[in-house]
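ok so I'm stuck.
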Amino acid sequence: MRKIFGHRGLPQIYIENTIKSLNKALEICDFVETDIRITKDEQLIFYHDPTIENKKIEELTLSEIKTFIDIDISEIHFVSRDQIKGRANFELKVNKEESELNKIFINKVTNLTKQDDIISSFDWETILNNRENFKSRYGILIDKENQLFESKAISNLDPKLMFMVEKEIFYSRNFELPKERCVVWTVNDSDEIMNILNMNVYGVVTDIGDKL
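replied:
not stuck anymore, here's the structure
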């Protein structure tokens, strides 16, 4: 327990969600947290926002995306697990309007993860419906207090499920999830990070992994 997750790598030093940022974070962090999306031509990229130049990622090919960004496309193109030199929490950015593409998305990510990785998403349905197929651990993201009751019920039914909990929700008086399966995000005060880790959570996601 007590793991530090580099949020999109080391975003205060390197461009977030790039392979360089992720691997630099892994020199000092236990995990990296990174966002993944799938392109129109079924390629995986590390990218947070749903659009580039007001166009959805799922409507653009990798070649088209290459023309819109200021970095080498190889820095965000995910083709091999060997690109990331340590444990990762892959947050799936799912577009529910793309059901067929999502099936390919889930399959590709599943095949690219290791046992010690974590696959997570705000889309609980995607995680819960595919958990039997994941090779890695899996978790759901929680950013609303009204999600706590349902997630508590799920936690009782699935002892493997992890919970990626927004910091303010973690402090809620209604919080009753098993802390040893919780990762709290995003915490950027070093004292607060230590305080939360001392509550026996699994880990904390932070932008300041280099300062701890």
